[in-house]
Model the fold of this input.
Amino acid sequence: MPDIHRIIPILKTLYPDAVCSLEWSGDPWKLLVMGRLSAQCTDERVNLVCPALFDRYPDVYAMAAGDVDEIGAYIRSCGLWRTKAESLKGAAECIVLRHGGKVPADREALLALPGVGRKIANLVLGDAFGIPGIVADTHCIRINGRLGFYPTEMKDPLKVEKILAPIVPAEEQSDYCHRMVLFGREYCMARNPRCGDCPLAGECGTKAKAKSHHVAVPHPQQINTVPTPKKP
Ligand code: SF4
Done:
């Protein structure tokens, strides 16, 4: 089992600023919108699209009064635009009606908003309100499985969250997940991870397994020196 108390300091040294890669400018509503748009889309794309979207819909009231097709026109390049536009408008309406226009700092209330799952709820709680939570996105799921906290076949975000929550200290959870994203882009990519120069190799179950299953490939000279069996 990898040691989280060795992993966290290494990640902190690698990425001292564990910033969210979404540029949400300190507004919880904008973080919620960007979290929703990032489903099956890159953070870079979301960062590109959102300035124009937020110019047109500067707050939750503007989004609640917006037209789905027009909202969709701003976010089309993020994919699934109609579903996302409908859920953004729906979430804005709920926040206006139920929460006085303020994003609730409460997991259950967030999960009750259209389009908001645990990943977005935990992202908003952690970054906007300082409430701990594991953001089980694709990087987090992949890397922690490879490290050996659970089988690599496990892809269910809720199961991953429940396994990691008692392992990662509460006060570190948000930053840990942000660092996972940065680490997943630099070292532990989905394809061709850089195990050879990975700073976490000493803690990694995948790396250890690869070593123990290593099959020595003979040097060509060795192949040539293998004696030919004598005929009986
Ligand atoms: S050793 Fe390889 S699989 Fe393990 S964390 Fe590093 S890059 Fe990922």
Notes: The pocket of iron/sulfur cluster is lined by residues 143, 146-147, 187-188, 193-195, 198, 200-201, 204, 206-207 (CB under 6 Å). The longest helix spans residues 81-99. Residues 37 and 84 are 7 Å apart (CA to CA). Residues 213-232 have pLDDT under 50 and may be disordered.
